[in-house]
Amino acid sequence: MVHFVGAGPGAPDLITQRGAAFLQAADCIIYAGSLVNPALLGLAKPGCAIYNSAEMTLEQVLDVMHRMENAGKTTVRLHTGDPCLYGAIREQMDALDADGICYDDTPGVSSFCGAAAALNAEYTLPTVSQTVIITRMEGRTPVPERERLASLAAHGATMVIFLSIGLIDKVQTALLQGAYSPDTPAAVVYKASWPEEKIVRCTVGSLAESTRAAGITKTALIVVGDFLGKQYERSKLYDPAFTTEFRKGDPV
Ligand code: SAH
């Protein structure tokens, strides 16, 4: 059996209880060493085989899973954040399906949630934005033409941009080709929830310059939108005049 587990954004106590229990019981852990906090490996039982997938190919990862399965052992495949975002889990799952190896998936706290927490921010503010666009700039990994950053930016919604901090100048240009103005608030969150976390609050117009000034070159998210500004409306849900299934409104 293989358990895919989301490790969370960095702080070891942000893994789920289920994920931690799988780690404690595992005979083998294959962890994404470029981003997963190695402190989590402290949960492994004595004798647990540990592999860093940052140094491995898909074939090598699958080979370890096969060997463990054949020996009747349990493997945890530990991915950063939540495995469903940029986790390359599908190709592993398809290969396991083809070989009849059972697996399941335990969610984790994605870094886009870790970044919002670091900023004490709500991505979905009434009248400001009710949409979060999660995307990336194309780099060595292509992005479909219809998902070009500039066209997604045309919505002016809240955007969270992964894997793109090294292309910050291009990101800034693309955002300005969309609905954002140079004054639209933005932020860069480096290593959300790690002790070395850094937050840079800026505007779209100063995004590249501010990122460079902070010396941030990797492991960061770029978040953009008026949710970082001051204007918004109160929620209907907690409005005294609003009736819901659970509470009778009191019109004033
Ligand atoms: N599955 C992961 C994302 C993996 S892609 C998740 O759900 O978060 C790797 C990218 O995620 C990094 O390049 C960076 O953009 C972002 N990232 C991962 N951990 C981060 C953290 N703690 N703080 C800020 N960005 C992070």
Short note summarizing the structure:
The N and C termini lie far apart (59 Å).
Classified by CATH, the class of the largest domain is: Alpha Beta
Q: What value does the average pLDDT take?
A: 97
Task: Count every beta strand, where a strand is a DSSP E run of 2 or more residues.
Answer: 10
Count up the helices.
Answer: 7
Can you give a write-up of this model?
There is one protein chain. By secondary structure, the chain is α/β, with parallel strands linked by helices. It has two domains: 2-106, Tetrapyrrole methylase, N-terminal domain (Cobalt-precorrin-4 Transmethylase, domain 1), CATH 3.40.1010.10; 111-228, Tetrapyrrole methylase, C-terminal domain (Methyltransferase, Cobalt-precorrin-4 Transmethylase, Domain 2, 2-Layer Sandwich). 24% of the residues lie in helices and 19% in strands. The protein is built from seven helices and ten strands. It has helices at residues 17-25, 58-70, 90-98, 111-119, 149-152, 168-177, 207-213, and strands spanning 2-6, 28-31, 49-52, 75-79, 103-106, 132-136, 158-162, 185-190, 198-203, 220-224. The radius of gyration is 21 Å and the shape is globular. The N and C termini lie far apart (59 Å). The site of S-adenosyl-L-homocysteine has 24 residues, from α4 and β10. Its EC number is 2.1.1.133.
